[in-house]
Amino acid sequence: MALRLALASDHGGFTLKQHLVSALRARDLELLDLGPQTADSIDYPAKAKELCSAVLEDRAELGILLCGTGIGMSIAANRYLRIRAALCTDPFMARMAREHNDANVLVLGGRVLSPALAEEIVDVFLASSFEGGRHGRRVAMLDSP
Predict the structure, then answer these.
(1) Over the stretch 66-102, which tens digit does the pLDDT of each residue have?
(2) What DSSP assignment string belongs to 32-88?
(3) Smaller CB count within 10 Å for the chain: N or C?
(4) For domain 3-142, is the CATH number 3.40.47.10?
(5) Which burial class, exposed, middle or buried, applies to 92 when counting CB atoms under 10 A from its CB (0-12, 13-18, 19+)?
(6) CA–CA gap between residue 64 and residue 50 (Å, rounded)
(7) Is residue 87 a contact partner of residue 71, using CB atoms and an 8 Å limit?
């Protein structure tokens, strides 16, 4: 069964999102492109909410959010219980986000990453998995009131 992956951006991450959607279409993935479909100005909190809802409602297993720096999307996404959004700027961060933090949303900065580096980060994020163990206890603490 193919991994279900949702992507969304604001205008600052639009170009890189479009690049990633194109690159990911050739893989064994079920892509849910939540837009936008143009580079017109759009509010990042609304797109973060849409993608987080898709993950929380099991319409996607993982998500990728993009804005200009990734900072706004990270802040917006991490407001949702059971969303663990990680802003990653290199492959090591992406691997640690999955292995130690069970991150279910990758956040990228469309104005700070090259397409090649962004693809590498996405590759590592998708190839990595949660280690559990002591990390499971810590992640559980994030979701407890």
Answers:
(1) 999 999 999 999 999 999 999 999 999 999 999 999 9
(2) EE---SS-S---HHHHHHHHHHHHHTTS-SEEEEEESSSHHHHHHHTTSTT--EEE-
(3) C
(4) no
(5) exposed
(6) 12
(7) yes
User: Is the separation of the CB atoms in 52 and 77 below 8 Å?
Assistant: yes
| pLDDT class of 115 with cuts at 50, 70, 90 | very high
pTM, entire model: 0.96
Residue 75 in tokens: 């802040």
Known catalytic residues?
Answer: 67, 100
Q: Tokens for 60?
A: 């996607």
Torsion, Cα of 129, 134, 138, 140 (10° steps):
70
Q: Which residue, 41, 51, 25, 40, is CA-closest to 108?
A: 51
Q: φ and ψ at 17, to 5 degrees?
A: -60, -45
Domain boundaries, the chain: 3-142
